Description:
By secondary structure, the protein is mainly α. The protein is 74% helix and 0% strand. It starts with 25 loop residues before the first helix and ends with a helix. The model has no long low-confidence stretch (mean pLDDT 84).
Amino acid sequence: MDASDPFRNPNPIIGDSVLDTRYLNPEYLFNKAADFAIYIFNHLFTKDALHNVYVVLSFFALFFIAVIIYTTVRMFEIRKKEHLHLQHEIAEYAHKQALKEGKTEA
Length: 106
């Protein structure tokens, strides 16, 4: 076994399998993830990039405000439609009751 390779697993059961690769080593994976996070952090929070983030977030805010307004308008339209439908159902029920009472009285 080569002591100079820090990614080499000394476990004889794993041996030279796919599990013995350095890419499945948690320490290696964490270091790569940390390097990536630092890279993203450094490039995301520059002055120009931060301005771009603000622009994108502004577009998202406008989009979601439009969705909220559309949903509110549709809610009022549906309420109005339900109200008219219920008025029609109540009038129809009252008419049927009047006919039913007229037949029972006669």
